[in-house]
Amino acid sequence: MQGRFSYLNEPALLIVFQFHQLCLMIKRTLYFGNPAYLKTQHEQLVFEGLENGETKQVPIEDIGVLILDNQQITITQALIAKLLANNVALVTCDNTHHPTGLLLNLDGHSLQSQKFQAQLEATTPLKKQLWQQTITAKIRNQATLLEWHRIPVKNMQNWASEVKSGDPENLEGTAAAYYWKHLFTNTAVGAGFKREREGIPPNNLLNYGYAILRAVVARNIVASGLLPTLGIFHRNQYNAYCLADDLMEPYRPFVDKLVWDITRMHGLFLELSPAMKKILLQIPAMDVLIRDEKSPLMVAVQKTTASLSKCFEGRIRKIDYPAFANLV
Question: Residue 179: which of 141, 218, 142 has the closest Cα?
Answer without folding.
Answer: 142
